[in-house]
Amino acid sequence: MGVLLLDSINQPADLKQLNEKQVEQLCEEIRSFLLKNISKTGGHLASNLGMVELTVALHRVLETPQDKIVFDVGHQCYTHKILTGRRGQFEQLRQLDGISGFPNPNESVHDAFIAGHGNTALSLAIGMAWAKKLHHEQGLVVAVIGDGAFTGGMVYEGMNNIEHLDNLLVILNDNKMSISKNVGALARYLTHLRTTTAYVDAKDNVRSFLDAVPLVGTPLKNTLTDCKTLLRRAMYHSTMFEDMGFQYLGPVDGHNVEELERTLHTLRGRPGPHFLHVITKKGKGYQPAEVNPGNYHGVSAFDLDGMPDPEVAPKESFSTVFGKALVTEGEKNQDLCAITAAMKYGTGLQFFAHSHPTRFFDVGMAEQHAVTFAAGLASQGMLPVVCIYSTFLQRSYDQIIHDVNLLQENVVFAIDRAGFVPGDGETHQGIYDPAFLSQINIPLYAPSNYQELTYWLQQLLSDRFHGPRAIRYPRGGQDAVLAGFGCSGQEYDYLYKNENATIVLVSYADELTDVLQAAQELKQKDIVCDVLKLVKLYPFTDKMLDELIKYQKILFAEECVANGSIGEHLEYVLQQKGWGGCFIHLSVRDVCLPHASVAQIKQATGLDAASLVQTVQMAVTKGESLS
């Protein structure tokens, strides 16, 4: 293979030396590089394949870091990382001590802000643009927003506050909207005219001429302006953007670097705020991802020649087991509805959508609306199940408190990706929901295997419960050891019970695997421990508390932020009951977790089996509380 152009690109400045043919070659090389590397490490595939030309054009026109690029959502930033000196680090993408899958200012001065959650870019860009104005700094602030992010409310809140920001450019990366050939061709032609100097000069000359004509000049100019606005709105469907204060331009072909560069150069020379509508193809250059871009949004390592279609052959996981169980419950109860926020396949709800389409609702990237929408359904006798990843559920906390919990509306929360999540680092960890839900006394269940998930989902959807309640479960499949314990139907179970044991190890969900291993290793060291599994995390039952009071030492381990956690609640309640033993609480003290495997995250947080063993040994030796 010959010398690659990509090998000579180490910083954005290197791009500016390339001619048109070289730019085209470079884009092909970047796309090949992405496919080769993501197939080995996993990562966000389809969105990045569609962003190559747009990112190249941005860096050929802009001067980062003086100009700021804010990505929304940040998973579309891989080409940006390649062009800003991180090409050689892609072998460790989303791995321990490697580069993040999202923009992160700690990695590079070219990364304007961290961006793991959606529809935040415009608000961030507005803040940055205002800071530049107040500091009298040069430079443009560009928010690159995927069309999916426009389903979230923050984008519209931001658009309502863009007045006077002449240094702001919003780029809509539209990779879904279908535009007919004729309308698209005419729109591109008008866009070309509007981005040429001759057009701008002619428009200014006509305006000046009409201003000088006595009596009829000004009315005629206003009439022509109104006609032009009507035509533009008819062609571009841009009423909303222009009414909010943007100068709308587009649609522009997002895979034509020459057209993108010409447009960006023109916009940079005019005061904004500007709204540029760019059409891209998600998954471009890799046929399976082009055909099914949603299914190839985020992938594990795969064979480029034989990647399976996730919709045809979904991997068995907590998500798919949940989704299939919900279908069964939906057949029994015609009031049951399923709601998700742009995560139909991620939450396993594609099965419910196919079986009960009229009772399935994907509200887009709008978790706040999802929760309040569910409250409205519940208030009228429906039984809504809100299925959201733990990391995204935290975005709707006010709605959980105010719209669901105050009136005790009959809403079930199904919390996917609970606990530690590999790859995505600090932006996607499911470590907060036990803390924030227990603060408002919402019953919370955490099954540790598929049988428990199916059983407790059925229970939570029955008439036995009323009001808000939640069930949480981890990403991926069940652990074979935990699966072997089956489901007793009890809210807590002893997994190990020894006569005369004075120490008990307590946990829930996936962390039980390490707790069980720790108990075995401690037994070999002549330290005998019982192991108690919680299924109902909160509120505690009196029977469970009475069991724990019998022990001299309790170690509670959980994949949860320490403050407000289940373990913190438990220690307090035991003390209130007069228990004076040694309580050891192991949880997440530093919430900035690395992007790594779950095993590596457990090592970093002291929640792996080896750390549990060491902690218990120290407590036995010193007789101290280490909470």
With strands numbered from the N-terminus, the spatial order across the biggest sheet is 9-8-10-11-13-12-17
* Poorly predicted segments: 177-187, 308-314
Termini distance?
59 Å
Query: What's the pLDDT, averaged over the residues?
Result: 86
How many strands? 19
The 3D shape can be described as globular
Percentage of residues in DSSP E strands? 15-25%
Helix content: 40-55%
Structural class: alpha/beta
Radius of gyration: 28 Å
Number of helices: 26
Main beta-sheet annotation: 7 strands, mixed
Structure description:
- Helix 4 packs parallel to helix 12, helix 16 (367-379) runs parallel beside helix 18 (397-405) and helix 22 (511-524) crosses helix 26.
- The strands form 4 sheets. Strands 9-8-10-11-13-12-17 form a 7-stranded mixed β-sheet, sandwiched between helices. Strands 2-3-4-6-5 form a 5-stranded parallel β-sheet, sandwiched between helices. It has a 5-stranded mixed β-sheet with strand order 14-16-15-18-19, sandwiched between helices.
- It is of the alpha/beta class and 627 residues long.
- The longest helix has 22 residues, at 20-41.
Summed up:
The protein is an alpha/beta fold. The chain contains 26 helices and 19 strands.
Secondary-structure map:
Layout: H1 12-15, H2 20-41, E1 43-44, H3 46-49, H4 52-61, E2 68-72, H5 78-86, H6 121-134, E3 141-146, H7 153-159, E4 168-174, H8 181-194, H9 197-212, H10 217-236, H11 239-243, E5 247-253, H12 257-268, E6 274-279, H13 287-291, E7 298-299, H14 318-332, E8 336-340, H15 350-355, E9 360-362, H16 367-379, E10 383-389, H17 390-393, H18 397-405, E11 412-416, H19 433-438, E12 444-445, H20 450-460, E13 469-472, H21 480-483, E14 492-496, E15 503-507, H22 511-524, E16 529-534, E17 536-538, H23 542-548, E18 553-561, H24 566-576, E19 582-588, H25 598-605, H26 609-622
Parallel strand pairs: 2-3, 3-4, 4-6, 5-6, 8-9, 8-10, 10-11, 11-13, 12-13, 15-16, 15-18, 18-19
Antiparallel strand pairs: 1-7, 12-17, 14-16
